[in-house]
Amino acid sequence: MIGHMVIKKGRNQGGFTLIEMLGVLAIIVILAGLVGWGVMRATRHVGPVALAADIRSVQEQVGVYSYDTNPCFGHPLYPTESGGLPPEGQSYRIDWYASYFDPKRGEVVSFYPDYIRNLPRHHNEGVWRIDSSGVVWVDIDPNKY
């Protein structure tokens, strides 16, 4: 006779009970909450750091833009609506789309995207400015950046 397989069903069969699975799930939820809380705390300080990095980047590219335009026009241009620096004690908005004709390249060159590859946050709110000494500054709360 070919053997018959007898399967016994009982309490000692392998596997997890519902209580064990709920315990593991509770531990996972607690760990996810701790990780999420840590990430939220860390991102609270990102605004001022990102703003400082964006200011440095824009300042550097304003310098390159004015340096590149000096040989073309005999004086540096700045990415403002007037193309120059404001009078002492005043500031001008940065014109992200300021452009000039570069005779070396034989084409029109724009501040964005030819100098600034990625526009900074809040670029369209009029808060990015250049003062009379060519220094870039932003009129915004760093914690809200």
- Widest sheet, order of strands: 1-4-5
- What would you call the quaternary organization? single chain
End-to-end Cα distance, whole Å, is 81 Å
How many strand elements? 5
Describe how the helices and strands are arranged.
Blueprint: H1 18-43, H2 46-73, E1 91-93, E2 99-102, E3 107-110, H3 111-115, E4 128-131, E5 136-138
Antiparallel strand pairs: 1-4, 2-3, 4-5
Q: How would you briefly describe this protein structure?
A:
The protein is α+β, with helices and mostly antiparallel strands and 145 residues long. The protein has 3 helices and 5 strands, in the order ααβββαββ.
Can you characterise this structure?
- The chain is α+β, with helices and mostly antiparallel strands.
- It has a domain at 46-144.
- It has helices spanning 18-43, 46-73, 111-115, and strands at residues 91-93, 99-102, 107-110, 128-131, 136-138.
- The strands form two sheets. It has a three-stranded antiparallel beta sheet. A two-stranded antiparallel sheet has the order 2-3.
- Strand 2 and strand 3 (107-110) form a beta hairpin.
- 12% of the residues are buried.
What are the key terms here?
single chain, 145 residues, alpha+beta, 3-stranded antiparallel beta sheet, two-stranded antiparallel ribbon, 3 helices
